[in-house]
Amino acid sequence: MKSRITTIALLGMALFCVPLFGSVPVGPGTLNYLEGSASLSGSQLQSNDIGTSTMQPGQVLTTRDGRAEILLTPGAFLRAGENTSVKMLSSAMTATRIELIDGEAGIEVNQIGPDETIAVVANGVTTNLVKRGFYEFFTNHPRVMVFTGQAEVEVRPGNFKQVDRNHQMALVPDNNQISSFDPSQSHDPLFQWSKSRSDYLASQNRAQEYAGPGWGMGPYTRGYGFWGGPYWRPFGWGMGYYPGYYPGWWGGYWNPYGPYFGGPGFFVIPR
150, 166, 189: which is the final residue of a domain? Predict the structure, then answer.
């Protein structure tokens, strides 16, 4: 009898939880995280704007002593550092385009479809992100840094130069120099914050057992992420999980430094 009651209770919880997953509509430009002071086209952003406020084409996100995370596409996040201004040029799902007006920004691309483009304009130069990975853009000494992934920089109209992982390129017309860098020596505050945010999303990706895996608003936490299964991310494999024991990857992941050891197994999440 006790087992039957437990089963009924769990079924009731399942029916209760299903509508919560994905019930909040989100799209490109949605504010996914905020800390400190930031505004959207002059309007001060508050914590209750997370998941509800959206950058429309032409609007500018400005941070002062704060940072903000914006959803670009399912699986791609823009992270604006302090004292940064970013303009949304196009929020089309298959053709997302932003402009870094001032400051610094990181973009984490966990997945990108063959028909999707993510373009960043900085210092008047357009960069297309063509592979999943992590990228940083700066207007002070204009450049793009490719920690993982691959970017294509438009050096002349219709003429692109490829930038591979662990390489950076100056975003200066007629001076498009490419150089390598050591990622272990290039962990600036923006990188550290982006990794922290990525780690947090991975740790909070609790499995929505009855709705199935996928990208959406979290059933247990505010914010957009991948829920209910393993997914690739530039800082290592992430696992959507339910608190407790869950079969998955505890190692063997890929991060900005290269492949790490490990293999499939069980890991424990503190309750």
Answer: 189
Domain count of the fold of the chain: 2
Q: Residue 141 has what pLDDT?
A: 94
* Tokens representing residue 148 in the block: 């993982």
Residues 231-254: tens digit of each pLDDT = 455 655 444 332 333 333 333 333
Paired tokens of 251: 């190692």
Clarify whether residues 185 and 200 are in a common domain: no
26-35, 76-85, 134-143, 153-162: least confident range? 26-35
Within 10 Å of residue 126's Cβ, how many Cβ atoms?
17
Cα gap 105→86, rounded to integer Å = 8
Based on the fold, state whether residues 111 and 206 are members of the same structural domain: no
Give the end of a domain, one of 137, 163, 189.
Answer: 189
- Say yes or no to pLDDT of 92 above 60: yes
C-alpha closest to that of 81 among 160, 137, 12, 40? 137
Query: Rounded to whole angstroms, how far apart are CA atoms 63 and 53?
Result: 15
Token pair 């490990």 in the structure block, residue: 262
Residue 264 tokens read as 């499939």
Distance CA(226)–CA(32), nearest Å, equals 13
Give this prediction's pTM.
Answer: 0.73
